[in-house]
Every structure is written in C-alpha cells, then in structure tokens.
Design brief:
Chains A, B: GO terms for molecular function: DNA binding. The structure is a homodimer of 340-residue chains. The first copy, chain A, is of the alpha/beta class and 340 residues long. Chain A is built from 14 helices and 12 strands. In chain A, the strands form 2 sheets. Chain A has a 6-stranded parallel sheet, with helices on both faces. In chain A, strands 7-6-8-9-10-12 form a 6-stranded mixed sheet, sandwiched between helices. Chains A and B meet through helix 4, helix 5, helix 6, strand 2 and helix 7 of A and helix 4, helix 5, helix 6, strand 2 and helix 7 of B. The structure holds a DNA duplex (16 and 16 nucleotides).
Chain lengths: 340, 340
DNA sequence: CTGAAAGCGCTTACAG
DNA sequence: CTGAAAGCGCTTACAG
C-alpha cells in the first residue's frame, strides 16, 4: 500500500494539486470551504507530505547537522556530549526539526563532511563544538555559505553564530576553591597548583590556561600546566606526573578539564596513597554523575550542559530564520559543587 | 554561488543528463571515454548530488531512524545509549548512511514518530531498543511495512530482524559470582539474593527476573525482586528497601540492572555503613567507566555495547538489501569484571 | 552506447 | 479564489 500523494488528496477533494498544497500549508488565498474539504480529504487518506519532495522544492531540509571529531569511546564516556546532544534534540524537536549526527576521526574529516553536507544540501545548518584556535571548519562554513552556530569562548568568524562560554569565569570559580584551600594550609606548605587540560589546539583549553597562569601569578602561587589528549590509556602517565609535581614542587591542588579524567585520576592517586583533598585537592571543570560516585566525591564546576544545547539550537534556528548572526551567553547558574 | 547540478555537469561534458547520471553512478552501458569525461567535468565543477533529489527519485534515503523513548537525563547518563549510538553510527558511516536520532517522551510517542517517518518516507528503516512484552511499535512497523531491527531477548514479530540477547546467559554469569560468594559465608549466614530490575514492561527485565527466580530456587536460595523506573530520585528509596532486605531477610547479594543504579546504590549503602561486598555484594548487569571509579570498584558484566550497535546496524542493512528477515546473536565475549 | 522524455511528490509564480 | 504549468535535481525505462 503506497502512501497517498498530494495528487490523491487533490483528486479526492476535487481541486488542483496547487490548491491542495496551499490549503494544507496554510498559505493565504484559499477559501475556507475548500481548505476544509482538502483537510478532510488528507485526513481521510492519511496523507503525510513526502519529506524528500518537500526538501527538494523548498530547498530546505529541516535537518541540522552535528559532526563530532571524537572517538566513539570519548563520545560514549564523556557526559558532555550526550547532555549536549540531548539539549539540541530537545529544542529542535519543538519545531519538528531533526538532528543528524555523524562521528568522524578528526577535524579534517569533519571539515570535509561539512563541505559535503553543504554541497548535498543535506542540512539547513550545522553545530560546531570544540572550537579551535586555528579552526579549519571556519573556512568551510564561510566558503559554502553554511549556517552555523558554535559553542566557543571567542568568536570564530563574523559568519558564525555563537554561544559564548566565559572560560575566565569558569576558571575563576574553581580557583577560588583551590586558593581558599591553600590558605588553610600551614605556612610552610607548598603553594603550587596544576592545571591538567586538554590539547592546546582547543580554544577553551588555552583560555583556561591563560587565566590559570594569570590568577596563580597574581596570588603568588606556583603554576604548572599539563596537556592531555584525554585518552584513557594516558591516565597512569598523568598520574605519575601529578605525583611528581606533588612531591617535588609541593603541588597541592589540580584543576582537571573534565569529570572523566578527574575521576580516574582520583582513583589512581588513591592507589598511590595520596589523600584527596588533604594532600592534594582535585576540582573538575565539568560535572557529572561520575563525580558523585567516587569517594570522596569530586568537587566540580556544574553547569547545565543540556540547557547549553537548547540555547545553541535556538541560536542556529534564529540565525537561519532571521538571516543574521546571533550571539548569546550561557548557560547561566554555574556553581561549584562538592567539598573536596 | 549555487552548487552545480547534474545539468551543469552534463553540459560541461557535452552529454545528456541521463548519460551523465549513469556515468556518475557506475551504471553499465556508458563508454569508458564518456565516463571519464563526465567524471572530469563533475570534478572540475565540484559537483555533489543533491541529497533530496536523489532520495525523491530513488525512493530511498540512506537514513536510518532511532527514536528513543527515554528522558534526556537517562540518555545523557546511561552509558548504554551512547555506546549503542556510537556503534550504529560507526557501521552506518562505512556505507555513507546516516543516523537520525529523536528523543520522545514515551513509547506511544515513539510509535507515532515511527508511523510519521514511514509516511514521510523519511528513513529506510528503524532501530528498536528496549523491547517490551506488549510492544506497540510492532504493529506500526508491520502496518507501514517499515524495515526494522530490534535488540531483543525474544522475537517481536516475523517482520522484524533481531539481534538476540541471551538474558538467561547474562543472568547466569552474574549469579555464578554471587552464588560463589554465598558459599563462602558461614553456615548460619542468610542465603538470599535480590534482583533490582527495571520496569516489568520490558522484555529483558522479565526474562532476567524469570531466570533469577529459577536459579535461586534451584540453588535453595531466597529470592526477592524489586522494580525500579531508573529515576535518580528513587535511589534512596531503593536503598532503604535493599537495606531492609539485608537486615530482615538476610539478603547478601544484589543483581542490579545497570551501572548507574549500581554505583548510586553502592554510595548510599556506604553511607549507611554497609560494607560491600563483605556484608552485601553488588553485581551490575551493565558495565561502564562508572563501575571502575567507585570504591570498591563494582563487579559488572561487561559486554561490547558498541559492537552490539555495529551488529544491529549491519542486520538492518542486510534486511533491507536482501529483503529478508535476519537474526544474529551478539555481541560475544561477555565477561564479569571486578571482584566485588 | 547515447539521448529525449517522463517521473519522483511537492511548491510557487503566473494567468484567469 | 482556483487551475495549469513549470520547476526543484535527480533516475530510469524506452527508443534509437
């Protein structure tokens, strides 16, 4: 039983396809009576518009793309992604739009995919996560006139809408905790902190590092920085480095980029007999359920990532509908949770 | 700069649209020389086929749908979903297919969405997770002739391909652990176990419960079952019930449906002074990083969920290409990890 | 092997 | 307000 087409509905209602189309789409210029007749016919036949035909004649798809240049391990374990995806989804679903997700090995592959999506007219717009200092996606987006919204701490391009993330504030919030802890230590204890961040290619990592160094320097606190590529097999290596800093430089606190790394670090340090937070405090810049099931629980900067997803989706929709670049800050209500 | 169309390529190569189409699609019946000329023209112009036009004329979309009747909280925190999605993605990407994901509030909404996708010819097929005893999606799939593949412990319909999950085996594997632990207890200790499962509407939950009761009964072990809707705010309630069973019925071990619930239960029990596993052993039927960062680490049945996703995707692709129902068992290599 | 034509199922000026 | 026609960008019989 092939699904009925507009032609079937038009015949059933005794009007032309054009009129049926207008009636069904609420376009002005159709008498109330025929509009009703058409609607009844469509309902009787159980007509639903063909997605592809609509996309072809309207030149818009109702689909938004998200290419993720992360391994499926990372995507599967880092809470950030699922929360983000859930938020995007939630907002798009409100207006019957869909999200197309594709995992790619690296940012080059991501750029290629974006270019292909643009050429195929596959999506109405794309979301950009993990903004980089030199971001190859920018050129692709600009060159193809692709509508895009990024989550980023600084602007990527005048053509890309942005959900601005205040990384300075985020770093300040967690440092406040660690500095306070340092103040409680005996006079002769070391005053040294570490930022265990992601790869320096990322905007947010460099923004955090800069702020971290500034603050430490202003407070007369020693500062070290290590960059991780977040791969799980690296955890024990990072642990050794953290341990060395603790023992040799008197490091007493670590700011960790994400919940996963923080939790794993906590476990490894525990094995090495380091007490957290007494010997070494850990604060994560991303919160999740992971931080609540370790012992002790991990102190983490909490933000509503799902809400960030909703905001980002809303931004892109507005960008497309109004044809203008939009910016927003968010999500609000960030707070450090836990007492580690 | 509008993207070039097939007509542009054909003009550039000096052939008809039809010939250009055949040449580009590797259809037989085109001379090698024109095929080359067309390919060169396409490359020169940077032509990429319009997705919508192709979908319309081919009556197939290259898109597969996954509707998830779970709250975005659950999807964002339960490791199963992301791993599954990553696996589906990974397999589909190999053949340039895409995954369309949509979150819906409940299984009724999911059924409606599937019906709409079918009517809109939006997807080539759909994936079905969380199979239910009375599953309303079955009728929708059958009625609309939608290609579907489910992950399920028993068949949903002769029209639906299936990745068979052996829940009996899964329960046996974890019970083996718990029974062995019981055997080490002093003579006068209680011999009683609990299965903390999801909602009884789910196939897998009932399959597990049945097996759990059978095994316990065969071993002369007392058996209790509690059903949770997995909502986080319920954890303390479940903890109280578990505690009561431990104290009053002498329950010494709990099989928990998933990693998240197990981890939370462990934390709460710890607060109440219950030692795990000495007083009460916990084994989870789903493994994840969560199980490794608690202390003690949680013993869990590990399976490669990403591989399950790949298998499920492959199943649906084959189902569609060969037009026949396919079944598979998997993924293999399940093993209980940890010593809790 | 190649071309002209029809068709996929819609939408959108353009006449009337 | 309504209809006939053209068009969106492809694919696919059908002739030649």
């Amino acid at each position: 039983m092939p699904s009925p087409t507009l032609a079937d509905v038009a015949r059933e209602a005794g009007v032309s396809k054009g009129t049926a189309s207008k009636a069904l789409n609420g376009v002005t210029g159709v008498s109330a009576s025929t509009r009703e007749r058409v609607a009844a016919a469509a309902a009787a036949l159980g007509w639903t518009p063909s997605y592809a035909a609509r996309a072809l004649s309207r030149a818009s798809t109702g689909v938004f793309g998200l290419a993720l240049a992360r391994s499926s391990e990372t995507v599967g374990t880092e809470s950030f992604f699922m929360a983000m995806v859930a938020g995007l989804e939630e907002e798009l679903a409100l207006t019957d739009r869909a999200l197309l997700i594709q995992l790619v090995p690296d940012v080059e592959a991501e750029s290629e995919l974006l270019a292909r999506w643009a050429a195929e007219r596959r999506v109405d717009g794309v979301f950009l996560l993990d903004a980089r200092l030199e971001d190859p996606r920018t050129a692709v987006v600009e060159h193809n006139g692709l509508a895009a919204a990024a989550m980023a701490s600084s602007p990527l391009s005048p053509m890309i809408s942005r959900l601005a993330v205040d990384e300075d504030l985020r770093m300040d919030l967690v440092l406040e905790r660690l500095m306070a802890a340092l103040d409680e230590l005996p006079e002769d204890a070391g005053r040294h902190l570490l930022y265990l961040g992601g790869l320096p290619q990322f905007q947010h990592v460099m923004a955090r590092e800069r702020r971290f160094r500034e603050r430490c320097s202003a407070a007369g606190v020693g500062a070290s920085v290590l960059h991780s590529d977040y791969q799980q097999h690296d955890v024990s290596r990072w642990t050794r480095e953290v341990l060395a800093l603790h023992r040799e430089a008197g490091c007493r606190g670590v700011v960790v980029d994400n919940d996963l790394l923080a939790a794993q670090l906590l476990v490894e340090l525990g094995r090495d007999g380091v007490r957290v937070p007494e010997d070494l405090a850990i604060v994560a810049l991303e919160d999740s359920i992971l931080c609540t099931v370790t012992s002790p629980a991990i102190t983490a900067l909490h933000r509503d990532t799902r809400e960030a997803g909703r905001l980002l989706a809303r931004l892109l929709v507005r960008h497309i509908e109004e044809g203008t670049l939009t910016e927003a800050i968010g999500p609000g209500g960030m707070v450090v949770r836990g007492s580690g």
